[in-house]
Amino acid sequence: MNVALLSLWMPILLSAVAVFIASSLVWMVLQYHNSDWKKLPNEDAVSAALKGVAPGGYSLPYCGSNKERATPEWQAKMVAGPVAMLTVCQHGSTGMGKQLGQWFVYCVVISTLVAYVAGTTLVTGTECMKVFQVTATVAVLAYAGSAACHSIWFGQAWSRTTKDILDGIIYGHVTAGIFCWLWP
Prior knowledge:
A two-stranded antiparallel ribbon has the order 1-2. The protein has helices at 9-30, 43-50, 66-69, 72-80, 97-121, 128-144, 147-154, 158-182; strands at residues 56-60, 84-88. It has a domain at 5-37 and 94-182. By secondary structure, the chain is mainly α. Helix 1 crosses helix 5 (97-121), helix 1 packs antiparallel against helix 8 (158-182) and helix 5 crosses helix 6.
């Protein structure tokens, strides 16, 4: 018989907490993501130029339609450069409470989806390695599955994407370990 989602509340919550802790260790102890960003030349001038720009995503040069993309003017801007995709974030507080809260909720959502797939495909008493196999696959796909899109479509360095995929593999295996341990 399949396993009810509600009976998996403990591995859902504990795996979310474990991934939250693992991600904190990755970012604060290992710190291999520190090289993901570079300092802009003339940072103060760029900052001044962006004053008053509302938070959101921007592209340079901007193109509002495929018709505009076909114009010689826009194509010349692309060739001349710079070409950039820029995210302007809300400024003000340096605290990360909101982002950490959102990250934890995201971890709970992923763990819930992992539990759903495992609960509908596995039965009570399934051997630990089979639980690990199914839950690791789903969790790795959830945490790392779309990372390559940032390099393919938005120009993110493949080195950064590789680190994001590594993070997803770590988080997926942490999730699977908890589900394996607490599987009914």
